[in-house]
Amino acid sequence: MKKKKKQNIEAPAVKPSKSSNFLMKVKPVYMLLLAAILPLITAFVYFNYVNEHNNFLSFPLDDSWIHLTFARNISEYFSFSYYKDELVTAGSTSPLYTIILAIGFFIYKNEMILSYVIGVLCFSASAFYFYKLTIRDLRNSSIFAFAVTLIFIFDKWINFISLSGMETIMFIMLLIICAYLYKTKNAFPFAITAGLILWTRPDGIAFIAALALTYLTEMFFAKRNPEIKLFSKKQLINILIIYFILTGMYFMFNYFLSGSILPNTYSAKVAYFIDTEKRLDFLQDKVWMYFTNGYYSIIMIGFVFAIIKLIVDFSRKKYNQNTLYIVFIFTFILLYTIKLPAINRFGRYVMPLIPFFILASMTGFRDMIETIVKLTKIPITKTILYIVLIPIVYYLCYSDFKKNKSDLSKYCNYIYSRQIQAAYWLKEHTEENDIIATHDIGAIGYYSGRKLVDVAGLVNLELNEKLNDYNYSQIMENYCINHGVTYLAFLNNWYTISNQSPVFSTNEGDYTEVMGVFRFSPGKTHILSKEAHNILSKIGKVVKEKNADSVILLSDKALKLEPYDSYAYFFRAVGYFLKNDIVNYEKDILHSLELFPESKFSNQNYANFLFNNKRFEEAKKVFSKLTNLDPANKNFATSLKAASDSALHQKMISEINK
Question: Which domain holds residue 633?
């Protein structure tokens, strides 16, 4: 009788000798504690660096204050609302995270420290369970498991996101814990954790799908391999009951608040991003580039080998320990490719893949090295490869870790200098009953103390449904009129307000992204159409290339869409100037000023033109106008004096010649 070949999921642990027994027991305990403590240190290193360089507390994302605004209103008004006890809506991507913040507000009122503490504690728990999961996957090799855990602890994006005030790090923590509980077949806590995943982020459905597919695979292989541990029938029924109760509560929660089983943020993000990326470009230019940058480029080799081994094992009807991780990664990416082809700022949408990418990659490297040793039949090859590989990965990982400190500092400053400063200005210079329309509702909603109209549709569901309409700018204007909006707060790379100066603007030295606050006057204030706005944005880039014909052509297209927009005339004037067509330049710049007399751009451009063409008296009048528009601008005052002196000198020369 032919002996049946025995299959193992994992290599059996080697029975330790008495002398090593103590070390086998003690080392993992100390390493577990170290895995939990080290994230507190690395996160503090980031926090301290940012605080020393900026001298203020901030987040790198405006969305962080969306959770905080909901949480504060829950704690103060017991209402899941965005303004006091009004604007009740399912506007939080992560109800669980928001509720935890709300509970935190009963203990501590400083929103920044509260968010940092929750984020760092989630990071610590993530590392703790990452080590437990890794030591299980790596055949109880505590040293190598800790070496892999260090890569996760020093990962640049995990540290970055732990101080971002976002739910992402809590989501990562739940995914890691859920994976560990699943692999150890700890039924009850696994069911609870799996049921909370959607409460943390709706894209967690990809992990649930990966769990289901992995379990079906295990059931299939368990028929041939009794070593594969499955849930009992009773456990499976209990798991499904608990999961569906928790998930059903989540769907009912959202439906009760907004009439949809998913948060407003889901449909708003899908509507906003769906046309901005081609799906294949998303995979190549976003996902692939993200996971082949920095030290990821090295561990990607291990990940590719892990995929190959998974395919080979599956063809041999052998269970592979990376099944859950790899299936999750591909299911998650597929979901985003179909529904939301974007990774958002810093790639935060795909950050939940990082721990599983590291795990699969490092087990892939281990298997690859063992395969090489088998082929070469030289045992020392294993040691040499580990000695070469691990320092390279550590060096690149730590280099990325150090670099991202400055990036976190920069982006915290970016948000502070735009959204937070605009919020403070609105709080100090507007009335309590004023209503602000904006696309960035986070910091403005939290600090301004004003009721908002969210034109990005995260809170105002009616606008959510209209985001992709061709004439959305007109829909916005009408909505603002009907809802008593008195101010607009827009970044200039989002929307353009035609022929109107802001009453406040931030970081004017950086014209690429300025947060402007405008008075909203019904019938006068006009928001340019999305198409015209995009054309004008494109013209700005073409002007830098000094391509006169393209500037004029694009300006003509913009004027067909918006015939009364001063910016289009201004840019066309610049195009004519580049062609040395002075007659048409002056005609268009004057037309621009006729439509928008207070335009600093047009006035300054025209004043410089007049001065350079020795029309000093005319230049003097325009520079004088500029100093009245912006008295604090020293350059305008200096130019006015130069124009005045030149005009006087020109007049004296003229009189002498007479």
Answer: 604-658
The answer to whether the CB of 191 falls within 8 A of the CB of 144 is no
AA letter at 112? M
Q: What are the C-alpha distances in Å from 245 to residues 194, 215, 242, 266, 426?
A: 11, 20, 5, 22, 44
Rounded distance between C-alpha atoms, residue 576 and residue 593, angstroms: 16
Domain count for the chain, please give it: 3
Over the stretch 3-20, which tens digit does the pLDDT of each residue have?
444 444 443 343 444 444
pLDDT for 13: 40
Q: Which residues contact 581 (CB under 8 A, 6 or more apart)?
A: none
Query: Which among 353, 327, 357 has a CA at the least distance from the CA of 216?
Result: 327
Summarize pLDDT for 421-460 with one digit per residue, the tens. Answer: 999 999 999 999 999 999 999 999 999 999 999 998 888 8
Residue 82 pLDDT greater than 70, yes or no: yes
Which is more confidently placed, 460 or 157? Answer: 157
Measured distance CA(229)–CA(385) in Å, rounded? 33
CB 263, CB 254: distance < 8 Å: yes
- At position 94, the amino acid (one-letter code) is S
Q: Do 347 and 442 fall into the same domain?
A: no
Same domain, 183 and 268: yes
Secondary structure of residue 555 in the 3-state scheme: helix
Tens digits of residue pLDDT in 263-318: 877 777 766 666 555 677 888 889 999 999 999 999 999 999 999 999 999 998 88
* Residue 182 sits in the same domain as residue 331: yes
Query: At which of 380, 412, 444 does a domain end?
Result: 412
Q: What number of other Cβ atoms are within 10 A of residue 387's Cβ? A: 9
Angstrom distance (rounded) from CA 575 to CA 585: 8
As a whole number of angstroms, the longest Cα–Cα distance in the chain is: 126
Placement of tokens 């909006």 in the chain? 485
Indicate the pTM of the whole model.
Answer: 0.89
